[in-house]
Amino acid sequence: MSTSRQAAPVVPAPPAPGPKETDGRTARRPLALRLLARPETGVFLGAVAVFVFFLFAAPAVRDGSSMANILYQSSTIGIMALPVALLMIGGEFDLSAGVAVITSALTASMISYQLTMNVWAGVLVALAVSLGAGLLNGWMLVRTGLPSFLVTLGTFLILQGVNLAVTKLITGNVATDDIGDMDGFGQAEAVFASSFGVGGVQVRITVVWWLVFAALATWVLLRTRYGNWIFAVGGNQQSARAVGVPVTFTKVSLFALVGLGAWFVGMHQLFSFNTVQSGEGVGQELIYIAAAVIGGCLLTGGHGSAIGPVFGAFMFGMVQQGIVYAGWNPDWFKAFLGVMLLGATLINLWVRRTATRR
Amino acid sequence: MDRTPRDRSSRSRSRSTTSALAVAAVAALALAGCSSGSGGKKAEESAQGAAAGKASTPRMTVALITHQSPGDTFWDIVRKGAEAAAAKDNIKLVYSADPGAGNQAGLVQNAIDQKVDGIAVTLAKPDALKDAVSRAKVAGIPVVGLNSGVSEWRELGLLEFFGQDETVAGEALGKRLNESGAAKAVCVIQEQGNIGLTQRCDGVRKTFSGDTETLYVNGTDMPSVKSTITAKLKEDDAVDYVVTLGAPFALTAAQSVAEAGSKARIATFDLNKQLTGAIADGRVEFAVDQQPYLQGYLAVDSLWLYENNGNYSGGGEQPVLTGPAFVDKSNVGRVAGFAAKGTR
């Protein structure tokens, strides 16, 4: 409380002159404060702080190809963090998001390999399975009225077990077979896992997809009716229903959207590594959720943005790789990661408080 | 609660989405027409596992209890070895696993309650298993150790032990690096705090005359493993060897090396079927194989020998070592066929 008041003078003076303030009540808030009140501003400043910090702490980061590597790491988190954030704005969250990625990759790999089909057949079946898993989550949620924590914890455990058991049953091993020499692999690789040169630096295509999806999600959230529904069901479900928002449709479709994200990231993993181990993915759901929360999405729903999680994921990738670029003692790795994330989140929180207190 | 008409319409909309999905799934299956002309199941040879005759001794039950975490290719091979021995020896094998030491001790107790005829157990956290093992001895059930616990098994009163001394394996790898004239190695640990993995890197550090650095990666997230190794190679271009502690990570490290434009070569612990291909084409230099199949096989088989002929492998004093066995370009051809079946 007192800290935020003390810290208030640090806020930069508003650069915009704005209209003459005649009456205190109707005056437009200064531009800087209006910006500060946006959910993504805090995380943007946090990300800049972390970035600048590592520019000095780790000289290797200044290299263009290092930046491409950091962006790649961020994109694989960020693509999933987007639908996870939308779901969170809609008032729910999904613990099965991490293993769902692996479910999708395993499905595509096994369908293609076991039936000796063009890999695109596997990719499409995996899409159906991923959307199905998302729809199932949403359907169970609206039918039972249980909290999403419980419903998705259930699917998290189910998917984890099914990933292992079905893979073992079908391939006889716990990892899938290499599909690198099969028909269609090259095309699928080009879509999901290729890279291209920009000024001598190899940039992974997932970075482009990440930014495209983020722009799309921002547009949906801010400019479409569906976007309004998301905010409405996350804010207050009862009143949203009362004013005619299709609550059931919105929630179920948001879960399906998470499934779509899991499919995309799963395909990336499959086509960049050719094979998948069935035990992967556990724990990733928390990283996606963290990226969304750091990105300014409230765990309670109704507030957030799509661009915030982009910075949230970038911050994750930056810290995770920055520690390695800096060559710090790796025994402390997780502790560094935790401290940096907490620090960045506190900056985020402070900015939001400062902005809304005025 | 009343349903508004609006709500009902959204319901039918979601139903039509479901049917659209079903159509998509059927369409996907119709794609079966465009089958792949290369690779896939059709290209895989139908291979038979190692099978010997079958013993006519009375049926016995053996419990194999490991600290496997789900979905790890390594443990799958241990289990296959145990199953092969069980099939041969007329043994009913009960397999269970839990990475948590307390839970693993619970599984041992469970086996005692089932009155099995023998227990094979891994000792990743020996202290936690001490009580359970002594209860098994009180119940008159012979217990053998495998894989981890090479320095503790005698103290806990186990009958015999099959495995690799992780430190010795690390030392062997370090010596091999010396022969190749390496100057700086990075040891990649995919699970922070796992004692066996740490011992391997410590072993490398002990014998390797160059520099050894440790790098932690998040083993459950391959894209992050890849970018972290890339980052390390970028940060330090003096690194000329990447040492990974599991086959899938070696293959990922090969991608990192290419991406970072590094000249580093790759050595690894443990094998799997993709890795033999990478060794054959030179992407990975060599692997230290502790022969997990042998560990599972010998542990189960030894309980049968003890029951039916009173034998002790290793004379009850020395561990039976299953590694380190090197697999490199010179012998990968011999091993590849077995690895393809998932037994090496």
Number-wise, the strands of chain A total 2
Shape of chain A: globular
Strand content of chain A: under 5%
From the spread of the alpha carbons, the general shape of chain B counts as globular
* Number of DSSP strand runs of chain B: 12
**Total number of helical segments of chain B?**
12
Roughly how many Å apart are the termini of chain A?
A: 13 Å
Tally of separate domains of chain A = 1
Structural class of chain B: alpha/beta
CATH topology tier name of chain A = ABC transporter involved in vitamin B12 uptake, BtuC
Q: Count structural domains of chain B.
A: 2
The CATH homologous superfamily of the largest domain in chain B: Response regulator
Brief characterization of the structure:
Chain B: This is Solute-binding lipoprotein. Chain A is built from 15 helices and 2 strands. Chain A has 358 residues and is mainly alpha-helical.
Describe what you observe in this structure.
The complex is a heterodimer of chains A (358) and B (344). Chain A has 358 residues and is mainly alpha-helical. Chain A has one domain: Orthogonal Bundle (ABC transporter involved in vitamin B12 uptake, BtuC), CATH 1.10.3470. Chain A has 15 helices and 2 strands. In chain A, α3 (41-57) runs parallel beside α14, α4 (64-89) packs antiparallel against α14 and α6 runs antiparallel to α12 (247-273). Chain A is globular. The two termini of chain A are 13 Å apart. Chain B is built from 12 helices and 12 strands. The radius of gyration of chain B is 24 Å and the shape is globular. In chain B, strands 2-1-3-4-5-11 form a 6-stranded parallel β-sheet, with helices on both faces. Chain B has a 6-stranded mixed β-sheet with strand order 7-6-8-9-10-12, sandwiched between helices. The longest helix of chain B has 26 residues, at 5-30. Chains A and B meet through α4, α5, α6, α7 and α12 of A and α1, α2, α3, β7 and α8 of B. Chain A: InterPro entries: ABC_transp_permease. Chain A: Keywords: Cell inner membrane, Cell membrane, Membrane, Sugar transport, Transmembrane, Transmembrane helix, Transport.
